[in-house]
Amino acid sequence: MIRLDVTILALSIAACTVGEEHHHDDDGVLDLSSALLVKTRDRLAVCMQLDPLLADQAPAFAATLRADLAQLGGSHPDWRIAGLDRGDVDVAIGCPGGALAAAPLDGKGTAGAVLGPGVSAAPSRFRTHVHVIADARAEAILGDQPFARAIAELAVVDEHRVAEVSTAIVVRASALGTEPFRTQALAQSVGLREVTP
Question: What is the largest CA-CA distance in the chain?
Answer without folding.
Answer: 56
